[in-house]
Amino acid sequence: MAITVFIRYRLDPFKRSAFEEYARRWLTIIPACGGTLVGYWMPHEGTNNIAYGLISFESLAAYEAYRERLKRDPDGVANFRSAEEQRLILAEERTFLRPVTRGG
């Protein structure tokens, strides 16, 4: 069963541009580690401290294998470290979704 990990980030609103750089670095890291990046979304209007990321996988087992590869990937480790050092992510929530229907 395919799953999509929906990640809700609570950001430091004064560090949105740093988060955007962080998100852009995942464009190559996530696929290299086995995930399908659906995308990242940044605040535009309204709430200025919430961003979202969606990553899809063939199964929960594929997600678990991805997480293990990510822990050993030098670029992934560096990206996580950079976000921690800059303290740009204040909180992160993950929800695992399964498709009911798909749009075309």
Topology at a glance:
Blueprint: E1 3-11, H1 16-33, E2 36-41, E3 50-57, H2 60-72, H3 74-86, E4 89-97
Antiparallel strand pairs: 1-3, 1-4, 2-3
Overview of the molecule:
- The protein is an alpha+beta fold and 104 residues long.
- It has a single domain (3-97), classed as 2-Layer Sandwich (Alpha-Beta Plaits).
- It is built from three helices and four strands.
- The chain has helices at residues 16-33, 60-72, 74-86, and strands spanning 3-11, 36-41, 50-57, 89-97.
- A four-stranded antiparallel β-sheet has the order 2-3-1-4.
- Helix 1 runs antiparallel to helix 3.
- It is globular, with a radius of gyration of 14 Å.
- It starts with a strand and ends in a 7-residue tail after the last strand.
Which tags fit this structure?
104 residues, 3 helices, globular
What's the short story on this structure?
With 104 residues, the protein is of the alpha+beta class. Helix content is 42%, strand content 31%.
Query: What form results from the Cα inertia axes?
Result: globular
Number of helices: 3
Contiguous runs where pLDDT drops below 50 for at least 5 residues? none
Strand count, sense and closure of the main sheet?
4 strands, antiparallel
- CATH class term: Alpha Beta
Query: What gap, in angstroms, lies between the N and C termini?
Result: 19 Å
Coarse structural class: alpha+beta
Order of helices and strands: EHEEHHE
Oligomer: single chain
In the CATH hierarchy, the architecture is 2-Layer Sandwich
* Gyration radius over CA: 14 Å
Strand arrangement within the widest β-sheet reads 2-3-1-4
Strand content: 25-35%
- Give the count of structural domains: 1
Instruction: Give the overall pLDDT as a whole number.
Output: 94
CATH fold-level assignment: Alpha-Beta Plaits
Let me know the number of strands: 4
